[in-house]
Amino acid sequence: MNNSIVLFTDGFPYGTQEAFLGNEIRFLSEAFSSVRIVPLFMRKGVRGPLPSNVRVLPPVFVSRAKAMLAFARPSAWLTFAAAVSEGKLSSSRVRKSLKQSVIISALKSRMGCRWSDFEADLWYFYWGTNAVNVLPFLSSCPRSVARFHRFDLYEEDVEGGESQVFRERMLERLAAQCLVSADGMAYLNRMYGHLGLNPVLARLGVPDRGRGRGSEDGVLRLLTCSNVYAIKRVDLLASALSTVSGTRIEWVHFGDGPREYRDRVLKIASRFPSNVRLQFMGRRPNNEVMEFFRSNPIDLFLNVSVSEGLPVSIMEALSFGCPVMATDCGGVSELVGDLNGRLLPVQISPERLAREILDVGGRACGMREAARSSWDEEVNAEKNYREFFEFLKHRV
């Protein structure tokens, strides 16, 4: 039985990213007597308070200057040379492979200097990239598991993804590969089934924060929550809404991104017809987004990305009983269908997207119970995390 665990994160509990990891911490602390968190990067702000048996170790990279010093280590360049020798390194992946080499070198050095910080029954890597890539370069370590989501799994997903030149050797060092979707599990088996791995389906989950409500005044209220990157196609939704006449639509978006993508969305929105309005909220803490779900009528949650794992934002919408319209990519079809919203083809025109929004939006009220049931059956945090940590504690 495993009693102590080290959790490797990109930044949690620092910063605003990995907000959904906060849903796991309570269950993790209840399952294990000792929990240590190793963040790779220092970021502004810190979440808290954490349970009393959770200890946060200093981030591996506390500043950009420290990262540059790590970049100068000979060991980082030796690791990069090993990546080149793998023969899988295209020019587009050179920068990302250099980043991985620096992370591997710095984390291995930290372990060499302070091994006692890392001694535990089990290592749990929250991502299938970055910190977990150190495994092939260690002579020995505790039994280890890693979660795989989207950018750290699907190799064709170059934008936003990371180079995976050491993937086969890393996968072989894991006692279990934990996939957040059945689609991801099928992908791993298809690509790496010859390695004799131990993949398990371990969906994320969100807690019960109560039920939301729909509109009662004839306005169709839409909500989106994502980074504003090309892959998320927030501009596609903006283009679709620019074609709608007659129906009053209020669209609220949480999230932000590079200026070129944000400005593209805002430029389209500036030409909306008078019946359509966008409220661009930018990046907000997760608790503010959840409060918005609780306090405001929302008729339809949308996600029109071209690539996903199993979006936590969709889980959160379903938990409030909010119908969801989303593109059929990654594991989205495992949560979204005609009973609780609408599954869309990835290749969809703005005109068709607009028609689908009006069609489903007009019937959304009757889908709210099915949406809530989808959350309870598939991504209820209370169920999923207790089962997952029971697995880690007793069967890894």
Explain what this protein looks like in three dimensions.
This protein is an alpha/beta fold. It has helices spanning 22-31, 64-71, 74-85, 94-113, 167-172, 182-192, 234-241, 259-269, 286-295, 312-319, 350-361, 368-378, 381-394; strands at residues 4-9, 34-39, 54-56, 122-125, 143-148, 176-179, 199-201, 220-225, 249-254, 276-282, 300-303, 324-327, 341-344. It has 2 domains: 4-205 and 380-394, Rossmann fold; 220-378, Rossmann fold (3-Layer(aba) Sandwich). The chain contains 13 helices and 13 strands. Strands 3-2-1-4-5-6-7 form a 7-stranded parallel sheet, with helices on one face. It has a 6-stranded parallel sheet with strand order 10-9-8-11-12-13, sandwiched between helices. Helix 1 (22-31) links the parallel strand 1 (4-9) and strand 2 (34-39). Helix 1 (22-31) packs across helix 13. The longest helix has 20 residues, at 94-113. The model has no long low-confidence stretch (mean pLDDT 90).
